[in-house]
Each structure stands twice: as structure tokens, then as C-alpha cells.
Amino acid sequence: MVRRDILEGFLSDLEIDENKKEKNKIRDYSAHFEESEGEDILKNIQKRDVVSLKEGQKEIFELVEERKRLTKEIANDIDKIVSQINTMSISVSSTDPTATAEKLNLLKKKAELEELKAKEKLECWRDIAMLKKELREWNRELREKESESSMLDKILE
């Protein structure tokens, strides 16, 4: 019982101290700002938002171009491998019975690579579609911010 009373007293003292700290933290700084400084602050915030959105758009454009470049690189690598397979299948003797199985195996690998190339094209399309969707959202948000900024400018004038 005594311990419980001590703990309750201690906890209530902590709560009182916390309330005092919170009250001390809340201060009114509005007297430090002139009206024109407040306008500048609002304009700067709006400009920062617009600049941030434009930078995001630029990054998305760069990601789209990078994805296209990567797909072309992968397609070129696959084409090189397919070309090597074609060369190997031509060099394989057609009279040897084991060569026929080897040639068939090479053709199978070639088909797998062509399938991989088609899948990469599809994945590229999906990735770019997703990025363009995100870009449309950024564009919408940018238009809203620019509209808000122009309304703010009119109000502050």
C-alpha cells in the first residue's frame, strides 16, 4: 500500500512536470513577423512545393528513359547470344546422329531466349506504364499547387 501511494505520488509529480514543460514549449512568435515576411514565407513554401514537384517529374522522365535504355541493352545482348547459337548450329555436322540432338537443343535454347526477349519487352511496357501513371499524378498535383500559388498571389496583392 505504501509503495503504491509513493508510486502514485511520483507519477502525478511527473505528469505535472510534463504539463509544465508542454506549456513552456508553446510560445507565440507572431509578434516577431511582419505581415510582409509572412507573405514571403507563404510564397517560398509554395515555390518550394512547385520546384519539388517539377524535380519529381524530371526524375520520372529519367527513369522512363533509363528503362527504355535497359530494355534495348538486354535485347541487344539476347540478339548476340542468338547469333552465336545460329553460328553454332550451322557448324554442327548434320550427318552425326548426336549432332542432331545437339542442334535441336540449340534451337530450344534459341526459342527460350526469344521468349525471354518478349517477356522483357512486356515488363518494360508495364514499368513505363506505371511510371507514366505516377507522372500523371505528379502533373495533377503540380497543376493544383500552381493554381493554389496563383490564388495565393492574388489574395496577397
Structural notes for this entry:
The protein has 157 residues and is mainly alpha-helical. The chain has a single domain, classed as Helix Hairpins. Helix content is 90%, strand content 0%. The protein has 3 helices and no strands. Helix 2 packs antiparallel against helix 3. The protein starts with a helix and ends with a helix.
Instruction: Tell me how many strands there are.
Output: 0
For the sheet with most strands, the description reads:
none
Number of helices: 3
Total number of domains = 1
- As residue ranges, the low-confidence spans are 21-25
Q: Strand content of the residues, in percent?
A: under 5%
* CATH architectural designation: Orthogonal Bundle
Based on Cα principal axes, name the global outline: rod-shaped
User: Which CATH C-level class is it?
Assistant: Mainly Alpha
Mean pLDDT: 78
- Class by helix and strand content? mainly alpha
Compute the gyration radius: what is it? 34 Å
Percent of residues in helices comes to over 70%
Query: Separation of termini?
Result: 68 Å
CATH topology: Helix Hairpins
Order of secondary-structure elements: HHH
Notable characteristics:
single chain, 157 residues, mainly alpha, Helix Hairpins, 3 helices, 0% strand
